[in-house]
């Protein structure tokens, strides 16, 4: 359970009239975090799609919002693989601002091919993500 | 458990390069659906904020994606209140395209005042939403 | 220069912490407006892409913001074709709330094929949009 | 005319089904670029709003799209002040990927106070941005 942490500066675009980040944007941060997690492991998700025609659509996502984040905050999104099946994988996320956890979440992904059929997680990917 | 249904036409903006709607957008549809649910009950959420200084931030959200939705689809988002506490409320959602359920989800909300303090659900609101 | 008008209810998502709609969202409304313009003319843009492999990427866009729009407003986006070349077309837009013009804008589009090459506007499309 | 350059990694969220970045997102990048421009000059835009109640809404925006950008690209957004009036200011932008200019644009801003009234650009800000 090695964590990887990505930082993101909150944009004006991401705020809403309550003066805080709109809730759906946390799922975008999760996307950024898992892309960078892959990259750190030597796996470029773009290459997975472009060259190997392997896709990881989201099958389920969830987020608990404990405290708001605001414009210009630097949020740190930590991510790790919390579950791994034969053709599925779950990422967990923890978002913090100045060391305080403001949200936690997860995304479950299926591994599919270009026809949308589930495929087993390829061995090399499984190995890298171990 | 009366349901309310809202229809939404999928925009190009909401798609991603996988050719389907990006997962975070479902949470935006949930927002649209609960706003219209309130409106149908005679409660305008905007008025709640503007005139009564009552806010319903999201404390938790989740979504299961069963099948994709695509550009120009008309999605129907059904919503109902699935849980009601003293100062919290849960909305459940079901998204379908052409009669097929493609996603289900929920959002849990706290009732707070303009200082961010939890408040009991006001009686008139509780009554209307009964 | 026949205009077509589309209505859109402003979502919470579209607001920012200034309490008004974030400026980039007007370009999304333009997209919605031109899709509906096409539909009214009997042209489904989705079909254009899916069946005829004709695409209309945006080559240029602009917007003047005269007054803000706010959460829950119903905005009316009027659109018309303001310029038509051999392989290019310009849409103009006017956004109003309660009869007051709050923004005007335009988008210039190229007609391209699936390899990204410019193509002449097909005769039937030209005819329909006349 | 000193330029400032900000880098941004294109997210999956920003792509659309054409496989490229959706056009409205360039305006979000412009926002990021001018925020960082201000920061480099020692001006934190957030502080301007929070402490001095000075706001810079967008009065006009435009963008020319020369070539697409794609998922996982690193885009560099260069920005500079191209025009300065007594209470208005224009930012110009140039977006490039791997050294190739893919888009240019601008945003015109009014300086307003918390009641929405135009104000002259404060001297210290004018001085800093000189």
Write the layout of secondary structure elements.
The structure is a homotetramer of 130-residue chains.
Chain A: E1 4-9, H1 25-40, H2 45-52, E2 58-65, E3 74-84, E4 88-97, E5 100-110, H3 123-129
Antiparallel strand pairs in A: 1-3, 2-5, 3-4, 4-5
Description:
Four copies of one chain form a homotetramer. In chain A, 24% of the residues lie in helices and 35% in strands. Chain A is α+β, with helices and mostly antiparallel strands and 130 residues long. The model of chain A has no long low-confidence stretch (mean pLDDT 96). Chains in contact: A-B, A-C, A-D, B-C, B-D, C-D. Chain A binds chain B through residues 18, 20, 23-25, 27-28, 31, 55, 57-65, 68, 107, and chain B through 18, 20, 23-25, 27-28, 31, 55, 57-65, 68, 107.
Please state the CA-atom Rg of chain A, rounded to the nearest Å: 15 Å
If strands are numbered along the chain, what order do they take across the biggest sheet of chain A? 1-3-4-5-2
Q: Give the overall shape of chain A.
A: elongated
**Strand-pairing-aware structural class of chain A:** alpha+beta
Number of strands of chain A: 5
Helix-strand pattern of chain A: EHHEEEEH
Q: What is the CATH T-level topology of chain A?
A: Thiol Ester Dehydrase, Chain A
Q: Name the average pLDDT of chain A.
A: 96
The protein's oligomeric status is homotetramer
N-C termini distance of chain A? 9 Å
Biggest pleated-sheet summary of chain A: 5 strands, antiparallel
Domains of chain A, number: 1
Helix content of chain A: 10-25%
Show unreliable segments of chain A.
none
CATH superfamily assignment of chain A? Hotdog Thioesterase
CATH class of chain A: Alpha Beta
């Amino acid at each position: 359970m090695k964590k990887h942490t990505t930082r993101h500066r909150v944009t004006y675009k991401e705020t809403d009239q309550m003066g805080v980040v709109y809730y759906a944007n946390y799922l975008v941060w999760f996307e950024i975090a898992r892309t960078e997690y892959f990259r750190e492991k030597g796996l470029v998700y773009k290459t997975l799609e472009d060259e190997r025609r392997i896709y990881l659509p989201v099958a389920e996502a969830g987020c608990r919002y404990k405290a708001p984040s605001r414009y210009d905050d630097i949020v740190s999104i930590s991510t790790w693989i919390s579950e791994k099946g034969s053709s599925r994988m779950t990422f967990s996320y923890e978002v913090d601002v100045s060391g305080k956890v403001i949200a936690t979440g997860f995304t479950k992904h299926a591994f599919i091919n270009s026809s949308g059929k589930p495929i087993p997680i390829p061995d090399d990917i499984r190995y890298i993500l171990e």
